[in-house]
Amino acid sequence: PELRNKRVPIALDEYAYAGGGSYKVVPAYAWNFHEMFRHSDVFQLATLTFITGTYSAARGQAVLNPTGLLFKLYRDHFGTIPADVSGNSPQPRPTDPPGGEQPVVHAGSDTFPLDVAAAWTADRKTFTVAVINPTESAQTLNLEIRGVQLAGKVSLRRMAPQSLTATVAVGQEPGVKIEEQSIDAVPTKPTFPPFSVSIYEFPVKSSPES
């Protein structure tokens, strides 16, 4: 009960998923990012254990593998000041809980089966929205951005390979890429491919002070 009155920050000093050479862990890493963003008042530091799991090396060369590309995607294009995300489709209770006391509030945003996180860039000139589709079918989202005056074209960057086993290796055509496109206006009902990770960047005319 004391934790309700006194927040105890967490330093997640080691975390990782096995099998980081292929795309299959990418949606899981992205979802992990989102959960830490949502609770950034508690998670104040997090470090990846297997940094060697972010690249592929051979013959004196190295390239970012799918996990490394995901880290680059969020580092370069997702904001640093978290913003609220709301929805009318809460995450369901797990059907096969591992045992022990179950949480009252479940992980994820209220946009099931998609997971959505939003943040401002440090200069508050760009509003960013990240969307994960962790399912094996395409999903559509009713997207509405409130309290922000947008300006200019919207940038979309997405990772959505044809296979969960897709990878990136030295000297081979990459099976995973960060695809980029420019959009004229905010998409009201965008559709997200299976197992995809997408980040929108919305330039703004004005932004709230906090």
Topology:
Elements: E1 10-15, H1 26-38, E2 43-48, E3 55-58, E4 61-64, H2 66-77, E5 81-83, E6 115-120, E7 126-132, E8 139-140, E9 149-150, E10 154-159, E11 179-183, E12 191-192, E13 197-206
Structural class: mainly beta
Q: What oligomeric state do the depicted chains represent?
A: single chain
First and last CA, distance: 29 Å
Radius of gyration: 18 Å
Provide a descriptive summary of the structure in words:
The structure is a single chain. The protein has 2 helices and 13 strands. The longest helix has 13 residues, at about 25-40. The two termini are about 30 Å apart. It is globular. By secondary structure, the protein is mainly β. The strands form 4 sheets. Strands 5, 6, 7, 9, 10, 11 and 13 form a 7-stranded antiparallel β-sheet that branches. Helix 1 links the parallel strand 1 (about 10-15) and strand 2 (about 45-50). The model has no long low-confidence stretch (mean pLDDT about 90).
